[in-house]
């Protein structure tokens, strides 16, 4: 018998739909994925500011921050990245249930892990946003000096250096982060949210 075989699911009395109706917008997860330094956090946070100013319920879950708390027991080995993404998926699902537009900024380099999260959500609730920025530019930006350390062999399993990044196959949105300003990228995501009737 599984560990959860004696645990019974409780439906909430206030439903996700009730919350969405009161908020005047739907809820969803914007799943930003891309190399370290590609611009995930900057874009997720700039979008959060825009949504906040428009009175929309939004929140950001950021890789660096979550790894300080909830996921501080996890490394960057493949299996730990999988668990990192699974947990973040579950947390994002709670935010979507609570009526929020939640933006997640995790490298989430493995296709299979992203699919696992996609499958936790209803159709149209999971919006994969590929923040596409070439490795050489991410490495040039290197805001935390981590690429330099990875090249020197001081950090192992670093994405793009000695750990793979699997490019999304059919993402809902691609942001060409080497060609576009953050402001323009925010506009693109906002247009997507309006066109898909989330806002
Ligand atoms: N080995 C290795 N590989 C990649 N990244 C590393 C590594 N070690 C530390 N860091 C820093 O951790 C941030 C990525 O954490 P994530 O939780 O987003 O990674 S993952 O989704 O589990 O792959 C990443 O932050 P971002 O630059 O915001 O992506 C790095 O600052
Ligand atoms: N569209 C962009 N154009 C130019 N620079 C950017 C853009 N997006 C992010 N940056 C810069 O790139 C660096 C990495 O951005 P960050 O959001 O921290 O990436 P990530 O969260 O993917 O690691 C930061 O110094 C940021 O100011």
UniProtKB/TrEMBL annotation:
Enzyme's top EC category: transferase
Catalytic residue list: 108 (phosphoserine intermediate)
Cleavable signal peptide: none
Swiss-Prot/TrEMBL catalytic activity: adenosine 5'-phosphosulfate + ATP = 3'-phosphoadenylyl sulfate + ADP + H(+)
Pfam families with a match to the protein in the record: APS_kinase
Single GO molecular function: ATP binding
Pathway: Sulfur metabolism; hydrogen sulfide biosynthesis; sulfite from sulfate: step 2/3
Binding-site positions, ATP: 34-41
SUPFAM superfamilies in alphabetical order: P-loop containing nucleoside triphosphate hydrolases
CDD domains linked to this entry: APSK (cd02027)
InterPro entries (UniProt xref): APS, APS_kinase_dom, P-loop_NTPase
One biological process term in Gene Ontology: hydrogen sulfide biosynthetic process
Superkingdom of the source species: Bacteria
Record keywords: ATP-binding, Kinase, Nucleotide-binding, Phosphoprotein, Transferase
EC number(s) reported in the record: 2.7.1.25
Positions of the APS kinase domain: 26-176
Tagged with keyword Transferase: yes
Its job: Catalyzes the synthesis of activated sulfate.
Similarity remark: Belongs to the APS kinase family.
HAMAP family cross-referenced by the UniProt entry: Adenylyl_sulf_kinase
Listed name of the protein: Adenylyl-sulfate kinase
Lineage of producing organism: Bacteria, Bacillati, Bacillota, Bacilli, Bacillales
């Amino acid at each position: 018998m599984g560990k959860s075989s004696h645990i019974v699911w409780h439906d909430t009395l206030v439903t996700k739909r009730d919350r969405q109706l009161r908020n005047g917008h739907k809820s969803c997860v914007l799943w930003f994925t891309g190399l370290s330094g590609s611009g995930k956090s900057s874009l997720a946070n700039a979008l959060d500011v825009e949504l906040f100013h428009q009175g929309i319920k939004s929140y950001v879950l950021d890789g660096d921050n979550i790894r300080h708390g909830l996921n501080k027991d996890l490394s960057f080995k493949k299996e730990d990245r999988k668990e990192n993404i699974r947990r973040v998926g579950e947390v994002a699902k709670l935010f979507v249930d609570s009526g929020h537009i939640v933006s997640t900024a995790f490298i989430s380099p493995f296709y299979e892990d992203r699919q696992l999260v996609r499958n936790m959500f209803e159709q149209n609730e999971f919006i994969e946003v590929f923040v596409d920025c070439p490795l050489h530019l991410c490495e040039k930006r290197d805001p935390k000096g981590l690429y330099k350390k990875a090249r020197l062999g001081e950090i192992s399993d670093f994405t793009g250096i000695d750990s793979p990044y699997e490019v999304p196959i059919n993402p809902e949105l691609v942001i060409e982060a080497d060609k576009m300003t953050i402001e323009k990228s925010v506009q693109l995501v906002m247009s997507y949210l309006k066109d898909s009737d989330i806002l």
